[in-house]
Amino acid sequence: MKRNLYILLLFLCLSMLSRKHIYAQDLTPFADQNVDDLGDVSDEFQETFFEALKQKGIENYELAITALNRCIAMEPTQAILYFERGKNYEALKKNDLAEEDFLKTLSLKPNEEAVLEALYELYYKSKDYGKAENTVKQLIPFDSQYKEDLSRIYTATKRYDEALQLLDALDSEKGGDPYRDQLRDRIYTLSGNEKGRTDAIEKKIASNPTAEADYLKLIYLYSEQGETQKAYETALKLKEINPTAEEVNLALYKLYLDDGKTEDAILAMKNVLKSNRITPDAKHRVLNDFLLFANKNPQYEGALEEAILLFDSQVAGSKIYQELANYFISKGAKSKALPYLKKALENDPDNIEVIKKTLLLQLDTGAFQDAEEIAASALELYPSQPLLYLTYGVALNKQSKFKEAIDQLEIGIDYIIDDTRMESDFYQQLGDAYAGTGNVAKAQQYIDKANALKAQNNK
């Protein structure tokens, strides 16, 4: 029985630890305490403790606490009991009671890393950063990796310089680390310290001149900051290191475009769009940038359309398709815009704004059957949107499906709230639909209502 209890205690303690410390050190709270160290515990104690573990395992935390209370009544000096009860209180979000039990555990078993870690995590989650800072400083002597946690606290309390100093110290001690790089990026973003971000990457390149990823980060940063010459110089350095680096075209594209070397910029843009290494987001930014350029320089629309075909063959995204559609709409090329709206809708079928824009453009270009199908599907998602009923009704009227149009329009008009212009449109379409069925009197009644509202809106 005692051997089984020891195994369960060991498993329980391992489950308390964060993944970082299980993998880093295999530490367990009370690792030096086996069942014999608990003293001459009774069978009743062991059975009750097993019951507590079982209830916690099936998330019956209140019952687990009840069992632990009975154990504490029998063995009030066993630290593991308070620690385990604290974890159950934490699961119930009774943080004050959890804190009390963790502190009691430390009073019985001082300076236990796993207990300090649990206490730190409790404070951090509840945003009690003062207590969290004090606790994590007690953890750092166990493992300097806890400086990352202290850096998170400094970030949360806007002590950005101190946070960065800790990360730098860890890099010096342990070498670079992607997680710490992410923390740095977050700090620079929150603090708005773009110069610090740039300086840090320049420093990394100076210490490791062959790290391509750092050159790319620096190119992006310089480009975003409008430092096109520096971006270009960095791109050339990267090209020296790796002449086949496709990412260098990101910097070259913008520099060529700003310098008026448009043909070179177009070539660089195409290389970006063809690349398998450059991210879709980066491709999107380049294409969107060239779209804005072509809008001001229409002589390059042909190059834009070639770029769109390249992009379209590799990348799908509702946002860029909407931007392309808006571009062609602004040029009056509605027939060219419509396919991109349909693609935007395929990528984001629940987007009500894309649905509405697609429907209106379909009606405008005479794609009435397509509009009918999209409106019918959209109403399954948004049954109280009056514009969907209106566009549905228009599409049906245009196909001489007058009775179906009347059904949809009469349903939809009840959803209008304080929009007399839309109400007038509904009446006009109902008038057209009744006229189509041969009911001239009813048609005139609705047309008169539409005209009255139009006159009211024109005042």
TrEMBL record:
The keyword Signal applies. The keyword Signal applies. Residues 1-24 form the signal peptide. Keywords: Signal, TPR repeat. InterPro entries: TPR-like_helical_dom_sf, TPR_rpt. TPR repeats lie at residues 79-112, 318-351, 424-457. Pfam families: TPR_16 (PF13432), TPR_8 (PF13181). PANTHER family: CELL DIVISION CYCLE 16,23,27, CELL DIVISION CYCLE PROTEIN 27 HOMOLOG. This is Tetratricopeptide repeat protein. It comes from Dokdonia ponticola. The lineage of its organism: Bacteria, Pseudomonadati, Bacteroidota, Flavobacteriia, Flavobacteriales.
